[in-house]
Amino acid sequence: MRLTARPRLYWTLQLIGWGLYGAFGLALVSLFGNFSAGLVLIEAIVAGVLLLASHGLRQYVRRAGWAGLSPGALLPRLLLAHAGLAAVSIAVIRGLIVLSFSVLQLKTDGQGSLLAQYAGYGLNIFFVFWVWSLLYFGLHYFDRYQTAEIDRWKLAAAAREAELQTLQAQLNPHFLFNGLNNIRALVMEDPARARVMMTHLAELLRYSMQRNGAELVPLATELDIVENYLQLEALQLEDRLRYCLRVDPAARASRLPPMTLQLLVENAIKHGLAPRPAGGTLAVAASLCPAGGLRLSVRNTGTFAPPAQPTGLGLRNVRERLALLFGPAAHLRIGPDPDQPDTVLAEISLPGGS
Question: Which one of 3.40.50.2300, 3.30.565.10, 2.40.240.50, 3.30.1360.70 gives the CATH number of domain 172-350?
Answer without folding.
Answer: 3.30.565.10
